[in-house]
User: Fold this.
Amino acid sequence: MSGNQSNVDSVQSRRVTWEGCSVLLDINDGDRLVFSRLTENSTLKIGKKNYSLRPLIGCPFGSLFQVEYGAEGSKLSRLLRSAEVSNIEDNGDYQPVEEHRDNRELVDNNKAQSLSGEDIEELRRQGATGDEIIEALIANSATFEKKTAFSQEKYRLKKQKKYAPRVLLRRPVARSICETYFTKYPARIGFMRVDTLSLLLSMANVAANSDILVVDMVGGLLTGAVAERMGSGYVCNMYLESSPYPMDIVRMFNFGDEICKRIVRTSLSDLCSVQNDPSEQMGHDVSATANSSNEQMCSHETLTEPSGMEEIALPSENEVSKCKIPKAGDKASQETIDLWKANGFSSLIVAAPELDTWNTVKDLMPHLSHSAPFAIYHQYLQPLATCMHRLQSEKMAVGLQISEPWLREYQVLPSRTHPCMQMSAFGGYILSGVKICNPESA
Amino acid sequence: MLALDPSKKLSFNKTIADGDLVIVYERHDTMKAVNVSEGSVFQNRFGVFKHSDWVGRPFGSKVYSNKSGYVYLLAPSPELWTLVLSHRTQILYITDISFVIMYLEIVPGCLVLESGTGSGSLTTSLARAVAPTGHVYTFDFHEQRAASAREDFERTGVSSVVTVGVRDIQGKGFPDELCGMADAVFLDLPQPWLVIVSAAKMLKPDATLCSFSPCIEQVQRSCEALRMNFTDIRTFDVLLRAYEVREVKNDSMQGHGGSPSQQPPCKRRQTSEGSNKQESISSTIMARPSAEAKGHTGYLTFARLKCSE
Assistant:
């Protein structure tokens, strides 16, 4: 099947970067995360310098880059496998050795290192690599030998991050995009943690060849994650008022034309309108103007984003048209809307902190197909409790459950395994259930 | 269960037909998978239900027994299937399943390897995630369990995207024919560290691996084995806490209602400012966490294959 082939190709080709693609840059092993777009002129600031991202174009996702100091100044250059092995953590045969050292004599008086800042600069000018500088620092440290093995590792890692920073080229997918936003700008995604997002997708039975109704007021993260998991079928991004909600995060997913065409917008009034109804005319006009003003709004947002997302290197208008970045979020065609009216949506996901939960669900339920599952996300428990109670008393759904996911990460290292010191205490609540037929109308 | 092509979308499948798989819902914790067959009956404490009454009804319908008891007939999904399938082994539930699929970055078109198959709980969700153009190769060393799994996949309609193999993955590793083709590998084995090298050969560069182990010692050994060829090694555990919701009526309405959820009033309650002062009935909806929760299922360790070259 030709469809088969292009689908396989797209999964394959997404493993190597191309000019104009969106990437997630991981600097120093998660210390700093930056979304960027790889163009001729895009740069990344590390320390006080701006480094061109051109060396990253055409490389496989997962490639590691390190700042290299050369005759023409410093640039990002690709670290190949063999160079990485020197990292201490890669020692597969680590034998736990009895540690006799401890920190009883260690005095933190800032006098241990005999190399000065100028000395280091001089070494750089002479062409020393980042790793050589680190070795020099270790050799000139009065206290290094007295540290425990673990402490030495920590020291080395700290110096490496400063003098030989590394940049990992990561693929933006639902997981990495959600994690990054949750770490940096959680409010923009309504504090939706990655395990919560994954539950929404499962509970709402997100799958290929479906029609999924989404109310996304979390910047487009939900819409993008649903579209990514579907591949085909429609994601209907619905707005309940006069203008669509922003969907900028969708652009980071690197969706091709095929998927972008399947992310469509419609207003509730469009969906509800009856043929030949004068209100339909109005409904269309409202959404038409809303759409064009939304396009303006989108481009405005593009330009003003940098103040909030100061780390994003956004392309200029010329670059956008040159790279032909496909756009999602076109208005749904009347044909598609008619299909939805006839058959209903196969499931519903709502993440709308600013709307009244019960009223929203009440308005949308009639548009769901029979036995359709739904998942409602909220930061606050009360709106979900009220909604669940109403759904129960009005016998609109079964299998109702309010869940709160809990996620804990562990550090697993020889003799140093324990849960991580930092933990997210909160990732939101979910109300899930399955729509049933109203017995009265059966 | 899956819409494998656009002409067979889930929303088009409205009414129950002879031979369909339905999920009979009695209560949130009492559900059963039933294949509809003209002439058959379904029996439970609410009475006897004739399948012939079900045929032609829409999914999601309420159906009655000979004793006026009722159940709901729901359309099957991987989530519901996980709750009703027969346990031949301990299974994974939705919390772990959903996190695994997200973290392994599985999308339609992916090729996923799994060992062991167990009761096929995760496998069914993996099938959904890769359909219609991807594939799941799942292996179990127990021939009977592999056969039961194959039957289940036929029953739920996912067999075209799942291949079950009988193979001792710990002893032999994954088959050579799949070298370099996998987008993701999932391991639920007693000694997963024995399989890491083989898994690394199966995976494309930067592709993902997950190992599920109940014990921390297993996790430690797996992580050590992973460090050679894998990066971005992270270990988590995920749990779900459920909440109960109750309506408490204002105690000045004592003796008013008949709703089974009404709590006997115990304290005088101040009605909030926003409530309708005109209405004589006022109630508060309250939520609290359920008393019981699952404490632990297993640790999930994820990793990515290092880029070579």
The CA atoms of residues 125 and 139 of chain A lie 19 Å apart. The mean pLDDT of chain A is 80. Chain A is about 35% helix and 20% strand.
